[in-house]
Amino acid sequence: MADAEIIPIGTRGRAGRGSGRAKPSSASRNLAAKRTTAKPAAKKAARVTSRPRAVPDAIEQVTTEAVPQPAPTDVPPAAPRPATTTSDRGPVAGISPAGWLAMLEAAAREVFGDDWEPRLAEVLALLRRRLAGEYDVDEFGFDPEVTEKLTLALLRPIAEKWFRIEVRGVENIPDEGGALIVSNHSGTVPVDALMTMVAVHDHTGRFLRLLGADLVFRMPFVGEMARRGGATLACNEDAERMLSRGDLVGVWPEGFKGIGKPFKQRYKLQRFGRGGFVSAALRTGVPIVPLSVVGAEEIYPLVGNVPALARLLGVPYVPITPLFPWLGPLGMVPLPSKWLLEFGEPIRTDELDDAAAEDPMLVFNLTDQVRETIQQTLYTLLMKRESVWR
Amino acid sequence: MGRVVLVTGVSRDLGRRFARVLATTEGIDRVIGVDVVPPRGDVGAMSFIRADIRTPVIAKVIAKEDVDTVVHMSVIATPGSAGGRLTMKELNVIGTMQLLAACQKAPSVKHLVVKSTSTVYGASSRDPAMFTEEMQPRRNPRSGFSKDAAEIEGYVRGFARRRPDVRVAVLRLANVVGPHVVSPMTSYFRLPVIPTVLGYDARMQFVHESDLDRVLELAVTSDVEGTYNVAGDGILMLSQAVRRLQRATLPLPGFAVGQLGSVLRQMRLADFSPEQLSFLTFGRGIDTTRMRTELGFEPAYTTEEAFADFAASMPAASRLSGSLTGRAVSSLQDLLPPASEKAGARG
């Protein structure tokens, strides 16, 4: 800290900075330190010898001066900062076109690295293609390009840096062919679904197709984004269509009961719907992969609900958390809990025949089996976690 | 002895074109076109009879001409062209009832082909991604064209029950586009600025007009029966379609789009009906597996190609050269050396 440059506050009794008057204001006089007579004199002498006075005193910036140095430094004392001169006060008038170009080039180099030209060309080509509408979506409205290059790229830092997601049992996700990932649902806002999407894509390179409630598709913007991200309505027709195409499908059978449960019921699985997901897997003969998510419960601890407002808005609940709505938009920032994702061993359904899907007892048993697996894994994961935050 | 085909709704372009194509088909002796107003344009070998299908006159025509195949294309989607919603409903529903009653009385009739629409499935947030023929609409249509179409299909099913000896084929077509098509959808896309529903993006499928002719011809000449979805391959999002047209959009909340629609309707610029609004909000997809496997029809145009053909037919003057951002991107692109050249120099 010996070399720290000390920038004093105020103008030390000389003409006020920028005030334009020869006489300093009383405020700046008060700010000036009481000095012994020797120091200013020494400083003045040094200044006069070091450089010629080219600019009026009024806009001269006082930067380096004779603050007593504890030791003679390696910085040559004869190189004080040059005075700041301003010849052009217009906002951009002083930058030539070449200067702009150089700035842009430097910025491009900063963003894209040394091979910025081909990469910028690539980005521009992508932009142009997007603007011309020359891209493909599948029958569900899934846009892989936007999902991979934009949505997942935006979510990835949240998954890695904010929630520090730890993934176990990735080998249980099949590398190809259809599979149904069944997970617990929590966290007031379905952040867990998005984070699962990121985790699955980053660990297996496959897109996870989400099954969402019809409320998702009724809401403006949300529904549009959901379809673009590969989600579709959670109904048997769509689930079976996706599974038989060989997609990796994610389902949260607890639905709003799970995601909107009070904080005190955290990590207690709710009823698993009517087992529709099991019959969809049975009909298409794909494995069911149970997924347990620990950490999502704590991101927005739901401590209250406004049922009247919820009815008015046509949503299942209006959440009250310790931070929302008290802190306004700031309360919408999820708490940085530590997340653990564990994919369990796949439950095979291809050995059962087609009639199995029509057997309600078998469907209920399988549903219970999946639910129990997830619940037990949740308990073991909770034991492994040091605390909510780490 | 060849067949005698009666085609309804030939005054409009699609009907007239199909009747003309059908008249040149092998194995078909005669094509009789029926409508309340004479068709404008070339009718080819088709013979036109001016008759209103809402009156029992149609029964006389069928009996006199010894018609064995009836192609019902007289389902109007635009109240504007018919002269109001009431007339449209009468033409659609009463017309179909009269026509089917006449068919039921005529022993000569052996085949019935109905051009229906995928609008019968409705469009809502609770829809599955793709409708198969067995699926019912999630919300029954309460007004307009989709209700008419649903009622017409109901009458056709009733007819099929009463005359089991008649082969009935119902084709549910996605939106037909092409250079000559005038429909609510094409007039919507022909607007200089396209209003869209803010926060929603609809999935759409299109059928090219030439594929419409082909699939109807196939339904007349082959011996398939039942209901079939007909659409080109693939899906186009509304936003994507508008970008391909290089048109400007005006995103508005749903209710405002509806109000704008009624203003446009009064100005005769576009027919913007409530069911079209829900279609533009949620979109719809129909499954065409049965069209391929049972009907044996392969569309020549995919959704994308059909729309591209339609877009190419639009007057160039009204097409903007691209949005501001698009122009900025392409001018930036011109500044840079081509990516391939660069890569070659490096590699």
TrEMBL record, chain A:
Low complexity composition bias: which ranges?
A: 21-40
The domain of life for this entry's organism is Bacteria
Its keywords, alphabetically, are: Acyltransferase, Transferase
Ranges of residues in domain Phospholipid/glycerol acyltransferase = 179-296
A Gene Ontology cellular-component term: membrane
Compositionally biased spans, kind Pro residues: 69-80
Keyword Transferase attributed: yes
Query: Which InterPro entries does the protein's record reference?
Result: Plipid/glycerol_acylTrfase (IPR002123)
Which parts of this chain are annotated as the region Disordered? 1-92
Kindly name one Pfam family recorded for this protein: Acyltransferase
Q: Which GO terms describe its molecular function?
A: acyltransferase activity
Supply the name of the protein: Acyltransferase family protein
TrEMBL record, chain B:
Q: What is this protein called?
A: NAD-dependent epimerase/dehydratase family protein
Task: Tell me the lineage of the source organism.
Answer: Bacteria, Bacillati, Actinomycetota, Actinomycetes, Propionibacteriales
Q: Which residues form a coiled coil?
A: none
Q: Which organism is it from?
A: Nocardioides islandensis
Do you know which PANTHER family this protein is assigned to?
BIFUNCTIONAL POLYMYXIN RESISTANCE PROTEIN ARNA (PTHR43245), NAD-DEPENDENT EPIMERASE_DEHYDRATASE (PTHR43245:SF52)
Residues in NAD-dependent epimerase/dehydratase domain copies: 5-231
Q: So where does this one cross the membrane?
A: none
